[in-house]
């Protein structure tokens, strides 16, 4: 358990998940063009002022990624370290690239040698023939596959071959307003059912009968879409039978659990209250404004507290509780990962993999993860003392992940569609337009044909 008053400290970290979600929102895609200098052998200077080695006849590897702002700056420092460490390969980076831009550039042959892919795109792009298999490199370079968290490694697998090496991942905890719980003499909940009861105690209405505070609002910000089903013991896909499993009792129980926060408090009233929430990554965050008491958040959130919360904001964080019916699955929440892949049209794939190896191992790996405040996917990096020294806020997340029960969303090429369809059907339940039974049946009817199509293509 973490319990703190807000610290008046601003760290470099920004949320990888938020950066990924904002990557497509208006980035110019511009970069400082050092390519001519690299080809001609001139010395270039990075934004940090560090001189790069004379590249001469070095192989130039291009990389596109989705990070922006401080995260892009952090990544550039690691690339600068690599470029300065040797003369054979020089990496040129283009930041803030959307998946749409990558999808346009790769087939035309105008794309990069390395792409930063998400957990919802790697297998889909592999299915479309946009990525090269990494199996021969993994073998020749003696990559220790058993050092990588298994379900996150699976995100880069398609058709029994590996198309991406995991890089960073997010894990989640239940953050809460400690001041409110202390005022009411409450301890953080130990089960999801206990949290639901506690929400009744922390709810406040004004003189007009309108809500000024609720305990928890589903789908704020978005994380519980996968997290809550896992905490009820649900699965999203049965690989043995190629079946979407959203109609299971566990999945229905999870959706019923979330729906109660609308139905029991009044659908119109909760909807109206939620419409008044401000921007998530801002001072107007609903938790910071005292509008909600509980929120499922990732390892970036302590930095959000430092950046945006009032100075007197008292908070705590615990492992997200599971249903009281299945205490044995405690710690089974979601992991969300990003990967590094080589496009099928890469002109320098051998050199590209050397860069990927550098980024996903040793001090460079720990340095980047500590700078942006994300978790590494390799056990050796997770267990590194340097990681906790450099980013102490990660320690409780690391401890939770090392329990070994957390897992990524299934590595299916229609995972993005799965999430979108689930989100729409859940909103139909929250608005009262559908029952839980109707919503999960509709999900199945839309998703199972995608599973059948994938099965037939394999």
Automatic annotation (TrEMBL):
Signal sequence, start to end: 1-23
Region entry Disordered, spans: 27-55
TM ranges: none
GO biological process, one term: maltodextrin transmembrane transport
Domain of life from the UniProt record: Bacteria
Keywords: Signal, Transport
GO terms for MF: maltose binding
Biased composition, class Polar residues, residue ranges: 34-45
Any one GO CC term of the record: ATP-binding cassette (ABC) transporter complex, substrate-binding subunit-containing
UniProt-listed PANTHER family: MALTOSE-BINDING PERIPLASMIC PROTEIN, MALTOSE_MALTODEXTRIN-BINDING PERIPLASMIC PROTEIN
Family named by the database record: Belongs to the bacterial solute-binding protein 1 family.
Protein name: Extracellular solute-binding protein
Organism: Hungatella hathewayi
């Amino acid at each position: 358990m973490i319990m703190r008053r807000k610290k008046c400290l601003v760290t470099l970290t920004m949320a990888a998940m938020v950066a990924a979600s904002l990557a497509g929102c208006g980035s110019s895609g511009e970069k400082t063009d050092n390519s001519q200098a690299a080809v001609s052998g001139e010395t270039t200077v990075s934004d940090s002022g560090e001189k790069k080695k004379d590249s001469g006849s070095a192989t130039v590897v291009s990389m596109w990624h989705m990070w922006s702002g401080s995260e892009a700056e952090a990544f550039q420092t690691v690339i600068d370290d690599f470029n300065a460490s040797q003369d054979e390969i020089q990496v040129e980076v283009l930041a803030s690239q959307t998946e749409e831009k990558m999808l346009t550039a790769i087939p035309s042959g105008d794309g990069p040698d390395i792409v930063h892919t998400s957990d919802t795109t790697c297998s889909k792009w592999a299915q479309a023939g946009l990525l090269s298999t990494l199996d021969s490199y993994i073998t020749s370079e003696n990559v220790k596959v058993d050092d990588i968290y298994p379900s996150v490694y699976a995100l880069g697998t398609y058709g029994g071959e590996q198309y991406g090496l995991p890089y960073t991942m997010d894990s989640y905890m239940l953050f809460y307003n400690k001041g409110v719980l202390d005022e009411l003499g409450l301890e953080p909940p130990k089960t999801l059912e206990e949290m639901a009861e506690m929400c009744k105690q922390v709810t406040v209405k004004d003189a007009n009968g309108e809500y000024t505070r609720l305990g928890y609002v589903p789908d704020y910000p978005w994380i519980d879409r996968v997290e809550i089903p896992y905490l009820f013991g649900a699965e999203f896909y049965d690989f043995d039978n190629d079946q979407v499993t959203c109609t299971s009792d566990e999945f229905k129980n999870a959706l019923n659990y979330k729906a109660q926060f609308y139905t029991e408090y009044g659908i119109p009233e909760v909807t109206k209250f939620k419409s008044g929430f401000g921007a998530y990554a801002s001072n107007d965050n609903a938790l910071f404004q005292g509008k909600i008491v509980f929120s499922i958040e990732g390892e970036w959130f302590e930095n959000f507290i430092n950046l945006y919360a009032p100075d007197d904001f008292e908070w705590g964080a615990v492992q997200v509780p599971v249903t009281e019916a299945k205490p044995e699955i405690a710690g089974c929440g979601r992991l969300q990962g990003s990967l590094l892949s080589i496009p099928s049209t890469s002109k320098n794939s051998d050199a590209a993999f050397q860069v990927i190896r550098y980024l996903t191992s040793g001090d460079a790996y720990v340095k980047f993860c500590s700078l942006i405040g994300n978790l590494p996917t390799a056990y050796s990096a997770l267990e590194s003392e340097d990681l906790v020294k450099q980013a102490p806020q990660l320690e409780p997340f690391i401890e939770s992940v090392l329990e070994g029960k957390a897992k990524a969303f299934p590595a299916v090429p229609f995972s993005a569609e799965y999430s979108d369809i689930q989100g729409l059907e859940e909103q139909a339940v929250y608005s009262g337009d559908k029952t839980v039974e109707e919503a999960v049946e509709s999900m199945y009817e839309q998703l199972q044909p995608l599973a059948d199509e994938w099965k037939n293509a394999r």
